[in-house]
């Protein structure tokens, strides 16, 4: 190695040590999945017997929501799509399949359930939550913001035209035998779910999506299932098992959800999806959002300098990411320009991520 290269590397190392922050990703990389386009007619029966369903890959096994424990029972999901619907198939291992809730838009996670969360544009605002139980009872709602930033929850919002089916591999609500589990098949019309994404379908693009499964310890009384309680009568906490770990017991941090890439190819023509580098800049901004919240909780005011939160500039893969913090009456915003695309990304006081395309 020549002297000039040695000197250049020394200068870069010195700069990194004393004047910059090597980007240390605080939240681990989310899971990703490729959903393929299908031309088959999909019959919703909870079985997913169609050829494309059989060929479509399953997600990784679900893990505990905090990413630390392997769940007692296995859960996996598949996805397909066509011009009219986004399809989901979930296979849920469960030795006691039971459910009690029969009215739409009741709090379905008070039963064992399967849940889908969808944020089309990945800005952490205006996202959808869907839940269903083994009785094929559903709850669909629209959240303007995550619960951490108070805003209306539109419980009366419906995914119009949704189709769902459940298959029980065993017997429902029968405590006298051991079941294998249950599976669900769901068809969500693009016309309804694209409302939060300017009515566009994500062909050869990605959305932020996550899946959750709530599982309760149960008790049986007079031949009926119910949630188990402790000696004082307090219900025991539920288990939360998810596809892409949240690292906290909270599904409502959309920036941690997985990435689903919607390939226009058929399942017989597989593609590889790599999470774009700009997404890592977005993760950094959400980390800074959380740092600002912590700073406020500790000091009773917002930080006014980036250096209060992180050393600046940030170096990531030998690229400089300059951060800019601006305060205003009642709040703040932090911006970063991507060295890869020259897009600017901005996080605001209420955790909304704004994308400003390059000029």
Structure characterization notes:
This protein is α+β, with helices and mostly antiparallel strands. The chain has 2 domains: about 5-25 and about 275-355; about 30-265, Immunoglobulin-like. The chain contains 4 helices and 22 strands. Strands 2, 3, 4, 5, 6, 7, 8, 9, 10, 11, 12, 15 and 16 form a 13-stranded mixed beta sheet that branches. It has a 4-stranded antiparallel beta sheet with strand order 19-20-21-22, with helices on one face. A 3-stranded mixed beta sheet has the order 1-17-18, with helices on one face. The longest helix has 23 residues, at about 275-300. It is globular and about 65 Å long. The two termini are about 40 Å apart.
Radius of gyration over alpha carbons? 23 Å
| Overall pLDDT | 93
Helix fraction, binned, reads 10-25%
Number of helices: 4
Number of domains: 2
User: What summary fits the major beta sheet?
Assistant: 13 strands, mixed
Using the coordinates above, name the CATH class of the largest domain. Mainly Beta
Dominant shape:
globular
User: What structural class do you assign from the helix and strand content?
Assistant: alpha+beta
Oligomeric assembly: single chain
How many angstroms does the end-to-end distance come to?
Answer: 40 Å
Strand percentage lies at 25-35%
| Poorly predicted runs of 5 or more residues | 10-19
- What order do the SSEs take from the amino end to the carboxyl end, as H and E? HEEHEEEEEEEEEHEEEEEHEEEEEE
């Amino acid at each position: 190695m020549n002297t000039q290269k040695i000197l250049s590397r020394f200068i870069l190392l010195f700069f990194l040590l004393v004047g910059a922050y090597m980007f240390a990703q605080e939240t681990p990389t989310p899971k990703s999945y490729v959903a393929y386009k299908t031309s088959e007619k999909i019959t919703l029966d909870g079985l997913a017997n169609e050829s494309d369903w059989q060929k479509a890959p399953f997600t990784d096994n679900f893990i505990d929501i905090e990413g630390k424990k392997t769940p007692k029972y296995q859960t996996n999901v598949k996805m397909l799509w066509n011009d009219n619907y986004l399809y989901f198939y979930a296979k849920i291992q469960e030795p006691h399949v039971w459910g009690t809730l029969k009215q739409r838009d009741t709090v379905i996670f008070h039963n064992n359930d399967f849940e889908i969360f969808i944020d089309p544009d990945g800005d952490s605002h205006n996202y959808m939550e869907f839940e269903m139980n083994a009785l094929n009872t559903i709850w669909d709602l629209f959240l303007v913001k995550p619960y951490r930033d108070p805003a209306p929850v539109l419980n009366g919002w419906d995914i119009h035209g949704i189709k769902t089916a459940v298959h029980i591999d065993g017997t429902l609500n029968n405590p006298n035998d051991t079941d294998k589990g249950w599976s669900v098949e769901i068809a969500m019309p693009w016309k309804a779910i694209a409302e939060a994404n300017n009515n566009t379908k994500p062909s050869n693009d990605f959305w932020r999506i996550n899946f959750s499964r709530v599982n309760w310890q149960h008790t049986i009384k007079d031949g009926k299932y119910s949630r188990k309680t402790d000696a004082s009568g307090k219900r025991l906490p539920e288990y939360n098992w998810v596809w892409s770990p949240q690292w906290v017991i909270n599904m409502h941090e959309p920036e941690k959800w997985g990435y689903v890439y919607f390939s226009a190819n058929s399942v017989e023509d597989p593609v590889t999806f790599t999470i774009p580098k700009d997404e890592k800049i977005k993760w950094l901004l959400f980390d800074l959002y959380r740092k600002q919240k912590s700073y406020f909780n500790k000091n009773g005011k917002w930080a006014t300098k980036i250096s209060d939160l992180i050393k600046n500039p940030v170096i990531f893969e030998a690229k400089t990411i300059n951060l800019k913090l601006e305060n205003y009456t009642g709040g703040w915003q932090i911006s970063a320009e991507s060295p890869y695309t020259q897009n600017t990304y901005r996080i605001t006081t209420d955790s909304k991520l704004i994308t400003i395309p390059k000029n």
